[in-house]
Amino acid sequence: MFTARQPVLENDPLYEDLEGESQPFRPESVHSTTANTAKRPRKKRKQHRVISALAMIIIIIGVSILLSSALIVYGRDLLGINSDSSTKIVTIPQGATMKEIAGTLQDSGIITKPDFFVFIVGMSDKDKDIKPGDHELRPDMAYETILSELISDPMDSSLSVSVTFPEGMRLVDAADLLEENNVCDADEFLDYFNHSAKFGYAYEDYLPSFQDEKFYQMEGYLFPDTYTFYQEMDVELVCQKILGNFNDKITKDMYDRMDALHISLDQTITLASMIQAEAGNTEQMTTISSVFWNRLNNATEYPLLQSDPTTKYVEEVIKPHSESYNQDLYTSYDTYQCTGLPAGPICNPGSEAIHAALYPDNTNYYFFYSNIDTKETYFAETLQEHEANQQKVQEQQEAAAAAESSEEESNDTEE
């Protein structure tokens, strides 16, 4: 007796072909599907091995690149492969450790890998032969050459010269002072300092491009201090020593403050030079700074800073040292004629003046007048108060002159 077959369900996917027609049940189809499923793990394992191999190759290549880069960097430092061939005077302190010496060399731009230098010198067993004092070195020297220079006798201290540049000294006067002390020629110094002195110091990134309206491009950047030079010294080394000191004195906090005030390094030094030239003492500087800042911030009512030392700079420095008449240049420095700050610094300001330029007092003063004899300065908020201060100073000076004249007459009578 035969049992009737169950009807095929049309919507059962096991019984539909690609055209959607019903097909009879095929056992081999099930077996085939099972077989294919069984092979998949082997295929995944093979893919995993390929991925692992690729990852290993990438790691090996990456490590090789890092090692190659390290070998290149350290090799360049070891062999002195450097485009900078400028000579630098490096001072090795008495009793300095090898680590301290390496740090000094790094700070001077002679080497870039101080720990590696310590390791190499330690292997040579000559670290205890290094002699304190000043040594002439270059960044393009190999470690072996650097060590050879350091164990040689330092520069002759008997030829050293101590030169002091006071706050507010003008660049042309500083050049004359260097020549008077037989350090270098004044004209050569001025030319190199203003046009060629580039040593890779951080402050150089903040300098404006050289401007035609500036007379001495680097006026203001000779930091007032006492320097040790050598007689008949290379002018490049003289400039390097001076500008290296300036670079050290201008700190990150100062640059941050300039950014907050929206002024450049050159504008800061220019304002500081005016404060330095105007102030009778350091206590007055922040108040004098406030007068200039108040005018700068209220340029509509006070477009001119009207600082007497800027006019003197034109008459005493620019005109005597100019090759030809240049009214535009004179005007750009004279704050009785130009608006805002002059074209550039008018002297070389010290730390206190630079600080005053960045941190002025909070006042309402727009005028000040000084008694050049007593170094006293009188401040005023209005023109009327300012004129009264002028009258007061004039009376003081007349009284002082009368007293001096009376004393001279008295001395003549006694004789």
The domain count comes to 3
Q: Any idea what the radius of gyration is?
A: 39 Å
Strand content: 5-15%
- Estimate the helix proportion, in percent: 40-55%
Work out the helix count: 14
Give the total of beta strands: 6
Mean pLDDT score: 85
Judged by helices, strands and strand pairing, the structural class is mainly alpha
Strand order of the largest sheet: 1-2
Shape: extended
Spans of 5+ residues with little confidence (pLDDT < 50)?
1-10, 12-22, 27-37
What profile does the largest beta sheet have?
2 strands, antiparallel
Short description:
Helices cover 52% and strands 7% of the residues. By secondary structure, the protein is mostly helical.
Considering the chains and any ligands shown, give keywords for the structure.
mainly alpha; 3 domains; disordered N terminus; extended; 415 residues; Dna Ligase, domain 1
Your description of this structure?
The chain has 415 residues and is mainly alpha-helical. The chain folds into 3 domains: 96 residues, Endolytic murein transglycosylase (Dna Ligase, domain 1, 2-Layer Sandwich); 93 residues, Endolytic murein transglycosylase (Dna Ligase, domain 1), CATH 3.30.1490.480; 147 residues, no CATH class. 52% of the residues lie in helices and 7% in strands. Strands 1-2 form a two-stranded antiparallel sheet. The chain has a two-stranded antiparallel sheet with strand order 3-4. The longest helix is centred in the first third of the chain and has 53 residues. It is extended. The N and C termini lie far apart (169 Å). The N terminus is likely disordered.
